[in-house]
Amino acid sequence: MGAMRSARKPLLAAVVVAVLVGPLGGGEAGAGAEPRATTRTVTIPASAFNPASDDVAFRRGASFLETTAGDGTFLAPVDFDAPDVRVIKVVFFAIDSGIAFPIFEVYRTQLAVPQNVLCGEGATQGSSDTMQVVTVRDLEPRRITGAYGMTLSVYLPAPYGDGYRFLGAKVTYSY
User: Fold this and answer.
1) What CATH class has 34-174?
2) Whole-model pTM?
């Protein structure tokens, strides 16, 4: 009987230590589990896009961008709330009721070596008087860090009178 009581004391001590310290390995519970990625979406309104040239005649409001004569290319930077992100997709919203196609491009900019890398592009498919959605998923490279920046480009082939208007974009990313 005395041997049984003395065997319980080390077992009880081991249980108390395990409860106070945590699971074997000394860390917090679940410390070996992979961290969960956070997914976010940032909206870039049409009003954030600026003409790539001073020669572009354009008009913009809070929710639209259009040329008033001829064609034009417009650019907007994308700001992320994390220093290292993986871009999942970029969605562009536009009206295209003309015969040409607005073109949407996604660039990664590296400041140390002044260059832009085309990560992906898309265009509207046929004309429609309603809003069209162009999703660019095949992006390479996808990773944007503090050493890089991201720029969106929109090419409008003709004025709104001919059927072209840009409405904005959304970038979905994880970190």
Assistant:
1) mainly beta
2) 0.78
